[in-house]
Automatic annotation (TrEMBL):
Ranges for domain CoA-binding: 8-100
Organism: Actinoplanes utahensis
UniProt cross-references to SUPFAM superfamilies, sorted A to Z: NAD(P)-binding Rossmann-fold domains
PANTHER family assigned: COA-BINDING DOMAIN-CONTAINING PROTEIN, CYTOPLASMIC PROTEIN-RELATED
Protein name (database record): Succinate--CoA ligase
Keyword Ligase tagged: yes
Length: 135
C-alpha cells in the first residue's frame, strides 16, 4: 500500500465526495487549495449543479472518466457506501478527511486492494510534503 504522500503525489484527478459551495466549510476550502496547486477536482454532490465553477456529478457512478483518488467529506456513517462506490468505479485510492474513521470502510478498501487513508487532511498532507501539480 502507498503512503498518504505517495497517493497524493501520484494523483492528478481527485473526485471530492461532499464538496461544498460554502466557503466556510473544509469541504470547500480544502479542494479549492488543491485546485490552486494544480490538481483537477471533480466535485461529487447530488444537491448542487456546480462547485468552484465546475459541474458536479451526483454520485461516483456518474463519473465519465477515471479518477486517481476519491476524497471523502461525508460523515463516517456514509463512508462505507462511498468506499463501495469507489471500488465499483475502480478508483485506486480513497481518502477520508480529518475526523472521519470507519473500520468497515477500511476493510472494504483493503479487500478490494485499493489504498486507504482516514482521518487526514488532504491540504495538510499536501503542504507537509510540499507537493504541487503546478509546473
Amino acid at each position: 500500500m502507498r503512503s498518504a504522500q505517495q497517493i497524493l503525489a501520484e494523483a492528478e484527478v481527485i473526485a471530492v465526495v461532499g464538496a461544498s459551495r460554502d466557503p466556510h466549510k473544509p469541504a470547500h476550502s480544502v479542494p479549492l487549495q488543491m485546485i490552486r496547486q494544480g490538481w483537477r477536482i471533480i466535485p461529487v454532490n447530488p444537491f448542487v449543479d456546480e462547485v468552484f465553477g465546475i459541474p458536479t456529478v451526483p454520485t461516483l457512478a456518474d463519473l465519465d472518466e477515471p479518477v486517481d483518488l476519491v476524497n471523502v467529506f461525508r460523515p463516517a456513517r456514509d463512508a462505507v457506501d462511498v468506499v463501495r462506490q469507489a471500488v465499483a468505479v475502480k478508483a485506486p485510492a480513497v481518502w477520508l478527511q480529518s475526523g472521519i474513521f470507519s473500520a468497515e470502510a477500511r476493510q472494504i478498501a483493503e479487500a478490494a486492494g485499493i489504498d486507504y487513508v482516514e482521518d487526514r487532511c488532504l491540504a495538510v498532507e499536501r503542504a507537509l510534503g510540499r507537493l504541487t501539480r503546478l509546473s
